[in-house]
User: Fold this.
Amino acid sequence: MSDKQVISLSINGVAREVFAPSDSTLLDVLRDDLGLHAAKRGCNQGVCGACTVMVDGVPMRSCLTMAGACEDHEVKTLEGYIQDPLMNSLQEAMIASGGVQCGFCTSGVLITARNLIEEKPDAAAEEIRTALSGNLCRCTGYVRIVEAIAKAAKEVVV
Amino acid sequence: MSNDMNIPDGIAVGLSTPKLENREKVTGRAEYIDDMSRPGMLYAAILGSPYPHARILSYDVSAALAAPGVVGVVTGEDVPDGRMGAFIKDEHALAKDKVRYVGEPVAAIAAETLAEARAAVNLIEVEYEELPAVLSPEEGLAKNAPILHEELESYIKVFDAGSTGNLCSRTELSEGDVDKAWADCAIVVEDEFVTEPQAHVSIEPCGALAEIDAQGRVTLWSANQSVFRVQANVCESLALPMSRLRSLTPRVGAGFGNKMEPHIQPLTVALAIKTGRPVKCILTREEDFEIVRARHPFKIRMKTGADANGKLIARECEVLLDCGAFADDSPGVLGYALLMSGGPYRIPNQRATGKLVYTNKLRFGAYRGFGNPQVTFAGEQQIDEIARRLGIEPIEMRRRNLLKQGDGWFVGPKIASNGLERCLDAVAAASGNPKASQDRIKRGRGLAITAHISGLLGTGAIVRMLEDGTISLNTGATDIGQGSDTVLAQICAETLKVPVDMVSVASPDTDGSPYNWGTTASRVTYTTGRAVAGAAREVVNQLFQHAAEMLEVPIEDLELREGGRVALRGSNEDLPFAAISGRAHWAKGGPIVGSHTLVFDEPTHDPKRAIALGLPFPQIGVFSFGATLVDVEVDQVTGQTRVAEAWSAIDVGRAINPRLVDVQTEGGFVQGMGFALYEAMVWDGARLANPSLLDYKIPTSADSPHIHSIIIEDPEPTGPFGAKGAGEISLNAIPAAIANAVNTVCPGLSHALPLTGERVLERIEESDNAA
Amino acid sequence: MSFVVLPKNIEDAVRFLADNPEARPLSGGASLVAMKNAGLIEASHFVSLARIEGLNGISVDEGGLRIGGMTRHRDIAASAHLTGDLAMIAQAAGQIANRVVRNMGTIGGAVGNADPAADYLPVLTCADADVEIYGADGPRRVSIEDYLIDWYETALEPGEIVTAIHLPHPKEARSNYHKLARTPGDYATASVACAIDGARVRVAVGACGPKPIRSAEAEAALEGQIADPAAIRIFADSLAALADPIDDVRGSSDYRLRLIPRMVTAAINELRGAH
Assistant:
């Protein structure tokens, strides 16, 4: 029997309890125990960015976060932004711009992008490119992703 | 044919419609293979070979079977002797009798949890007898080299491969008389080039989920570029009748050739059969690097000759390819690279020869470009070099030599539409003047042109009109993110003159979809699109038949009206599709179903033109063209090169969805740029040294340049609405253009890819020392 | 199988580590959890430092600056305290990995891991930093020189934690950190930390050997002559002569040896305002 324990988490504003292996990462728990699949496992090393989620309002690599260390933190995944106007604006911009191809990087991109726009709504294209350097995309060449983020940023009412 | 029914396009074709599945992807609801689970599902882990070359003497799985949570183990003893392989059938579902590369799957385990599977897999004991390994093609060809495939002569081969010893295949193509022609040249350049292996790095690692039903029939989902190739390969290697396996697709997280032929589907099915329960196997990123496939490293010797006016007279290309341990798509890559080695030029004398040699390394296989980027890297530099020596400007050099309308391709394929010159004109016009160099950053500009096929093999489409007049489209073509579902829906919608949201696209399923060879060779828009247009036209024919009877008018007087109506020309009398479909379903004629299948059947080889030995493609495709101009910045202190700006024009015949074509241009540019500047899989002896994204770097948003994507449309007569492929034409010329740009900043040619800082610094220092 | 424990103070943390030799301290997780995921380490426990007060943040007193071990790269990169000859430390922090990893990774974790290509090592060497270590016997301070011993080998005893980095007050001087990496965020192929304070130059070269390369004699020889290209050349070459780089996927040792004089010269010239 593997070493499991009860881990209490706050996910998308809801208190959740899982019974999971003690060395689970937050990514493991989100995907395997909570059925929240938006965060993806692209490398499990924190490099590709597909696992990025918000922890206490800050984007983090869920694959490098121990679930057991999350108990007094607020975790928010893409699924938690269903009715968030800024996220919706980003999502619509991505749909229209061509910034979504295979979609595997998309959740991580959206989490990172939303945080960027929130902190710096007037981010120029260069800053967007730099801020996104930790979200690897192999399909799009990044052009339409950056375009979508810039568009959504402009729509933010300052 | 593209537009023979005089349907003016515009309701769907030509629109940058957002992809049909985008909303599920931006909300995190898209379901990829690792998001799937089935009741009672087990998790798999793989045991890989520690040796590059060894006989398998025995297995002891008892400790593994006794480990907590373990339900079953498969080894080579559990799989039959069936061999799979796209060109040469040389590969088993799991290593049998022998291992041929470090990491080759030797056994697989299924357990209740992934952690238990991973803990137990190392308890499987395998006894090996190590054999001497072959680590390069030269070693493989040497006298008395250890032989990887002792039964090579007996393997089934789909073409005349000339396989012997460790020579997997050889190809020789020639036209004119190259040996005589050098004498007519005012200038001859000869160089050797080397390119290193590139990893696909689709952000989604490979995975599969297999389940056995009560009848013993297999249902298999997997990350794939063809549910049909998956079905064929699994059934071949596991000796299953194809009707006993149903192959399906979840959303796929990209595939640039790595998911076209099988990865772990056969062993996953074997585990499901063994345990009687569903089994899911997802590769770690490390495994994805180590056990799937990669782009071929090439060794190229190229020789090009021209007259004093820069007119090309002769080209000779000789390549030596490292096959890796299994043939996979390699014979195709060899043949295709040689076929493309002359570039899109009129060269009356050409010879292209090559050998493909087995080595004890990971199999090399299909990767966007399929050998074309490598030979283009070589050829375009020689074109520039000749231009330089003759004092001809690079763009002018291309103009004097490029293939024109009516010309055919080397060896024989016909070219119907040719927008190459317009691509060249477009990048020349768009690029303006290069910026000046500054301080330690020296700027250079480089050009390269290219061609690529789209076509190949068989495909089909079924268009069904539902009772209410809406449409269901089923082609079996896997959308790997590039948007083929959307593009095919647009083609279908345009033919029926309905908005694209009236068309639903079925997910590929070998049980219900018509055959489609695969999402590869830039072929889906062109080849499957043709089938879709054909099937939709059949539906139109059936609609007209019914309408003629229902309205009691001659069929020639009918026309389609936008939005789903059949009307009497020049009148207000019309019938909505629903009315016609209702009649068909309930009263007369039967449900309206159109289908169309085709195989690309234009011959590659024209024996009056060329000699071809070991050509793996008797039929190939139509031609797309491209031209790319890049501005690079070379840091004189470090040698590091980056691309500042790029203009890339591709002739796609007709842009069914212009935005999706732009994204191919942009994405292909960046992937080609990574290959050109820093991507290289490195072997440390027999072991892959950098199977990790920490050590193998792909371009990020911060180092991708400003890319100007230009769409050129030179309609392909056989293409749906004139369309032809975009997927690979967008990448081929990139390494060459970057090399040509660097060559204006550093003396000499770029003989090796990637153009690392180290390689460039060497040239900078050489030229500093010479000064 | 690893359990996560979350002690509330440093004494509990080090005692737990002392009592459990298979336990590992967990700061940001950027390195440690990646290694766990790759199966490279097996720890009985991860002792998270997240709840311990006083480990996060940058403070100033008469002695100088103290950067708590749990301070994140993001905060170090943005710190208003790191000016003048300490600006290079902020620059180095800002080039680690990417924005998201910088939200997680900590200076204590990075210095504790001591990857020879890590960005902090040359800048801290150049800045004459001290490393504050907490062990079962309490705290101690070690110069960065003495802290870094060899490839991945530091002065940390088993069960000890890096709790802070101590720096002198910033001087009115100029400093920079330049990193050559294949792509933005990659580990350095070679890196140079440089500070010019009046006539005095300090340089440390990173990612070119087991420890950053710095030479007091070479710096003394260059002092007062930084306007002389020949003297700069001699200085830069002498650092290359001290280097002992390896071949790896980021570059060969040969490339690194060529890079050192070039990058050092360029770094000094940039600070001088010359080109």
Summary: The first strand of chain A starts at residue 4 and ends at 11. The beta strands of chain A are 4-11, 14-21, 52-55, 58-61, 74-76.
